[in-house]
Amino acid sequence: MVMLIEFGHCHGITDIDWTCISMIKVAINGYGTIGKRVADAVDAQDDMEIIGITKTGPSFGCKLAVNKNFPIYCTSDDESKISSFSKEGYACIGGISDLLNIADIVVDCSPGKMGVANAEMYRRANIKYIFQGGEKHDLTGLSYSSSANHKSAFNANSARVVSCNTTGLSRTLVPLYDACGELTVECTMIRRAADPGDSSRGPINAIKPVLKVPSHHGLDLMTIKPEIKINSLAVAVPTTIMHVHSIIVDLPANHNFTTESIIKLWKNQPRVIVMNGNKNRITSTAEVMEMARDMGRKWGDLHEIFIWEDGVSLKGNRLYYFQAIHQESDVIPENIDCIRSMMGVEKDWKVSVEMTDSSISRYYGL
To answer: Is 92 a catalytic residue?
Structure first.
């Protein structure tokens, strides 16, 4: 188990002697789009280690795990399924129960709707667990985003890291709320239809409104920051690379903001990029993701929320802006911060964010 340390009271992250600290042993249940990214982010941390990942059966993802020296376990305890790995040349250490027995915490990156059964399995194993935003808030009773409610997860037994869209909303709306104490928000989520590697979903040649009004995104934000009044709509469009949010915020009548001061506020927030689209020729999500690739990010990921500076406008009490969300990666560092909070390591979210992000940058030589 991890030794409890108040990192926020240290003179600096680099002053910590990591050899004196027991590493947090992390299991990843599900090694797909999110799981492989979380595993790399955990592997990058000085206070964590990957104790094993799970796969349902032998596949290309196993080769990636082998290359990373991540021990492979089966998502089942069925001996025939465990032995199927060796037939394809992969060493499978054991079943999911074996992995849970040696881990401190498990990050569940399984396909959606498996949460109820998996939660019961984790409780029987007496292990802390984290779900992703595809599961319901009620599954854990605690939804998490680093900037919104980091302390609420401190020493918790279970949590749910909110979805990519809710994470994006929290990154820009929470600092606004903290600065003025009151917000009323209307948001339209312009959603990608599928992840780049998913060929089974659409729409292909259509724009598809989500006819459940309001959409779940605003309600989800209120699970981590109930003080923000928000309604949301959603539309799916035939693209795979990013979501875009079109956001209208009503500020209090006595606010002291200008367009420029709001932009400055966001520029000072971690995991937010504010850039002039026209000056930098980044006027669409295609250029945003090209920028991420040019930055040398693995998989072309962008953990940050991207705001078009020239699309920010404050008119009286009403603020308008657009932001872009990389759905495959913005929640990855949030999982790392959530692990630290649940393991009782760090209460200050900004300290954890700095630890997480600097470690990931060093890991990839950025």
So the answer is: no
